[in-house]
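Subject: sequence -> structure tokens, single chain

Hey, anyone have a minute? Need the predicted structure for the following. Not urgent.
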Amino acid sequence: RRRRFGQACVLAHELGEDVVGFYAHFLHTPASVARYAAILRGLPWAFSAHAKDIWTSPEWELREKLTPAEHGAVFGATCTAFGARHLRGLSGGTPVDLVYHGLDLSRFPIPPERKPRTAGSPLRLMSVGRLVEKKGFDNLIDAFALLSPDLDWHWVHIGGGPLDETLRERARLKSVADRIDWHGPRDQPEVIAAMRQADLFVLPSRIAEDGDRDGLPNVLMEAASQRLPILSTPVSAIPEFIEDGVHGLLRSDSPDTLARTIETFAADPALGPRLAANANERLTRSFVMAPGIARLHERLGAMMARRPA
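Reply:
Had a minute. Here:
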């Protein structure tokens, strides 16, 4: 806390007199610095919260930041109903809005018509995500090792992270490394191109040992924008976007369950297009950016109007 206070002292000193408030992205360190700077300058502050910053922060600290009488935030916003319920339960008066990130569909053009699969055709799997515990890629690799030898499959992973070498070694030990391409970090056009080549997007998210977890991963909405069927888990806010059997498949992250689900999907070529069409319709109807931007504009405008006397 001393370090954050020191950073706040510098921030409060350096900013001009025309500053009328602070808005912090993430509820852990950035919000602490914003809160201290706001106290020093006698200004209001607000935050947006996401995932790790909610679930790995101690409750006493969250309560302080959510209590205006203790120099808490004027308002907060978070990107999942799951997170909003948790923060509202800790709030001592700070309103917490649900503001989905949504997707800027202008950056995700409508994909070309997909070539229909047949039951015996190769299955092209892909995932995008950091190589960290909460993404569950270790269990997915174990699931690959359980797939029927008769299933012709291949997995592409995009992203980097601290578990890179560990997961590559796991794939070698499970004798599936020759069916996996590790692409590392890629820019958005390359991700879109890979999604258009895939048959199933897999994200087996779970709660990490330290409590960290996904919120609603943007990459699921990106997959939906490209009409790519989704297999994920009912963790955190993922069911807020995907209803199992309607917009995608939600299963436990156990290797056995993941393997069975992948085999079932591969054997039913009609399943993928139906799920993908429903997810795309849900995305364009309920998860675009404009409503959330309008809400934040309203909240920030009201906060900026609270000039100190």
